Amino acid sequence: MHDYAMPPYRIKMVEPIKLISREEREQALKDAGYNPFRLRSEDVYIDLLTDSGTGAMSHYQWAALMQGDEAYAGSRSFYRLEETVKEITGYQYMMPVHQGRGAEQVMIPELITHDHMYFISNIHFDTTRAHVEIAGARAIDCVIPECFETEIYHPFKGNFDIIRLQEIIQEKGSENIAGIIMTITNNSAGGQPVSMENMMAVSKIAKHHNIRLIIDGARYAENSYFIKQREQGFKQKSVAEIARETFALADIFLMSSKKDGLVNIGGLIAIKDDLDLFRKCQTAIVPKEGFPTYGGLAGRDMEALAVGLKEALNEQYLAYRIDEIKYLGDLLREGGVPIQYPTGGHAVFVDCGKIVPHIPYDQFPAQAVCNALYIEGGIRPVEIGSLLLGRDPDTHLNIKADKEFMRLTIPRRTYTFQHLEYVAKCLIRVYQNRNEIKGLKFTYESPILRHFTAEFLPIE
Ligand code: F0G
């Protein structure tokens, strides 16, 4: 018997899923232009596209929905959410938004004061990068080099490269840095955590140069749990205390609450104490998201979020959550499949550059493996590699990703260990037949965020 954490819940409601035949899967993928994003979810057996808004709510959350106060302005539900967010973060101001990118579209332009500014992040998530570029700034990633050595153990592969961060600030001039964005956990690196020590160093540098520090905290609870598990001096602290210490280091918190908010829709902007910035965001949010006390959410959404934010800090829940990912990672490693090791918070990242080295980066090796896994088992993963990275906004050339990852993203409180065993079995089979996998060429490519809508043909 294995020694993984037990789930602190039981299943009360089920959603039937079905594995369609291999022929049907082949047709569905062809119809989707060989892009899993374009599949109908009905044609998917196990959906590992994202952990965003795909989790199961608790019965407490479903009950809270009924208390939703649907007032346009100043609803009871807003104040309940505001109180929860203030308690968790220690920040003075907050606004709900419809999801993470809503927070980005409101906040990011407010931080840009002149032309040719930069944001620096451990790694910008793709929508964050897009909003930086849409607002006319440029995004620079600055993660430690160990991040891309997938086989080497490092407890905090999401960390900033502190020396490089200082060099970039010197090179570009601190007055040209619009903000430093701490992505926790570092999604694009494999849901890899960032240590408190590293965040403290980043915070010190930001303060020294008078640069705003922004937490992109979609998975801040998972990050706090890793700190408790892996960093010296935190064993005795609660995850909520660690989260509070994290927030104290920064000025702004942007959150896609579809992850560690345990809801299907929702997001947050919170500001520590800058009233002027809060007022600017209050003005900007109205035409973009909605009135500042609902920001695109219904009262019932805010109620569910207020409960979900608390549940996501429950340590039994987090222990099981993190162990689910580890379990899938362990099964794959036993089967010889190369993955980002150790596994991170929300997904297993499979190192497809090592699986299909015969496919060049601009034929999208990880996307090709995603397609193979769908055909094999009706499983829908997502590419996190050169396809997602897109083209250089200045030269329009394809950017080569450091790693061609396939992400097996685990929705919260949704699948069982048996589902994960099936995923491992199918992927090991794909791995054994890896030489048959072919690269892809575009038949359609959009100019921005192309991975969502692109269409392909396999290169025969
Ligand atoms: N920041 C991070 C770190 C994210 O992972 C995401 C979304 C966002 C911002 C944007 O939030 O989707 O609510 O608008 N990540 C999802 C994913 C989509 O699949 O990783 P959103």
Distance between the termini: 45 Å
Q: What's the CATH class of the largest domain, please?
A: Alpha Beta
- Series of secondary-structure elements, N-terminal to C-terminal: HEHHEHEHEHEHEHHEEHHHEHHEEHEHEE
Which percent range fits the helix content? 25-40%
The Cα radius of gyration reads 21 Å
Q: Could you describe the largest sheet, including whether it forms a barrel?
A: 7 strands, mixed
What features would you describe in this structure?
Helix 5 (126-134) links the parallel strand 3 (118-121) and strand 4. This protein has 2 domains: 22-51 and 314-458, Aspartate Aminotransferase, domain 1, CATH 3.90.1150.10; 59-311, Type I PLP-dependent aspartate aminotransferase-like (Major domain) (Aspartate Aminotransferase, domain 2). The mean pLDDT is 97. The chain has 16 helices and 14 strands. The protein is an alpha/beta fold. Helix content is 39%, strand content 13%. The protein has a 7-stranded mixed beta sheet with strand order 2-8-7-6-5-3-4, with helices on both faces. A 3-stranded antiparallel beta sheet has the order 9-12-11. The chain binds ligand F0G. Ligand F0G binds at residues 50, 52, 99-101, 125, 127-128, 183, 187, 216, 218, 256, 258, 267.
